[in-house]
Every structure is written in C-alpha cells, then in structure tokens.
Design a protein that fits this description.
With about 55 residues, the protein is mainly α. It has helices at about 1-25, 35-50.
C-alpha cells in the first residue's frame, strides 16, 4: 500500500512540475496548447487509475 501511495505522490509532483515548466515555456496561456492539455489529461488519468487501484 505504501508503494502505491508513494507512486501517487510522485506522479502528482511530476504533474505539478510539468505544469510549472509549461507555464514558464509557454506563458500564462500554456493550456491553450493541445499538446499540453493532452499530456496533463494523460497524467491526471494515470493518477486517477492509481488511486482507484486499477494499475
């Protein structure tokens, strides 16, 4: 169980760092870019599946 929780925390931190990086790279409108939205959606889905215990 601790391994899953650790993995979730790591993925959440990875998402946070990615968002900060994209904000720096693209500016305030970073979510206007399809590739950014796609990656964020994917990362959020991975976190959701981890929390549900499906992966």
């Amino acid at each position: 169980m601790a391994d899953r929780e650790t993995m979730i925390l790591l993925k959440e931190e990875e998402l946070k760092e990615f968002l900060e990086s994209m904000k720096y790279q693209y500016g305030q409108n970073y979510m206007d870019y399809e590739e950014v939205r796609g990656r964020v959606e994917f990362m959020e889905n991975v976190i959701k599946l981890l929390k549900e215990g499906k992966i």
